[in-house]
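[09:14] KT: can someone run the structure on this one? pasting the chain below
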Amino acid sequence: MLKLKKLFALLLGFAGVFVLSGCSPQDRSGTFYDTFVKPMDIALSKIHEYTGSWGWSIVIITLIIRLLVLPFMLNNYKIQNKARKGQELARPELEVIQAKQKAAREKEARAISNEEKMQARSELMEIQKEQFAIMKKYGANPMSLGGCLPLFIPLPFLTALFYTLSNPLYSAGIIDSTFLGIFNLGTRSYTLPVIAFIVYAIQTRLSMKMMPQVTQPGQEQMQQQMKLMQWLSPVMITIFSFWVAGAVAVYYIVGGLFLIFQTYVGHALYPPYVPEKQKKQTFDPNKVTLVSNKKKRK
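[09:31] RB: done, C-alpha cells below
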C-alpha cells in the first residue's frame, strides 16, 4: 500500500509539473514559454545554422539536453541503488513485521466487541510505524524527496524541447524538412513510431535486467504490477508518436538511445547490491521489539 501511494504521488507530481509548465505546445505566451521554450527554439535554430540539417540539429540539441541532465539522473541511480541495498538488509526484520501484521489482522478478524477491534487496529498501526522505522533505519525508501527531486529538475527542459518541436517558431523550417532524405519531420510518420517502440522496449528490458527492484515480503503482487507499468512507457510513446510530427518522434528515438547509454553508465557506477551467499544473514525475531509490545510491558 505504501508503494502504491508513493507511485500515485509521483505520477501526480509529474502531472502537476506539466499543468504548471504551460499547458499546451500551441501557447506562445507565459513564464514557461519565455523562460524555457523560446530559448530552446532559438538554440535549435542556431544549431541549424551550423549543421544545415534540421534532423541532425534535433539530434544534437536532444543530446546536449540529455548530457546536461545526466548528473541528476545518475544521482537518482545512486539513491535508488542505496535504497535497494537497504531493502535487502531490512528484509529479515520486515519478514518478522509481516508475520506480526498477519497475526494482528487475524486477531482483528476474530474480534467480537468494538473494544477488541479497536485494540487490534491500534496494534496494526503500531506495527506499521515500526515498519516505517525499519525502512528509515536502512534507508530503504527509494520514493523519498531526495530520490524524486532529480527526476523533476530536468523535466522543464525536456518539456521545452518537446514544445519547440511540436510548434516551432524560430526553427519553423522543420515543418518542410526531411531527415536522412527519408523521414518527413513536419508531418506524421508511420515508421518513426515503430522505431521508437523498439528503442524504448530495449531500454525498458535493459533497465529491468540491470537495475532490478527488490521485492519486499508480502508485496510480490505489487512488484508484478510495477513491472507491467514499466512497459506502459514504450506503448504510450509509440501511440503518441503516431499523432505528432516526425520531429517529435526523432526526439523520442534519440532520447531513448541515450537512456540505453545512461542505463549502462548507471549500472557501471552503481551496480546492484548482491548479498553475500557465503555469509547467511541470521536474525533473531525476538530482537524486534514493537512499539505495541513496549506499551504492554508498561
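[09:33] KT: thanks! Strands lie at 178-179, 183-184.
[09:34] RB: yep, looked fine to me
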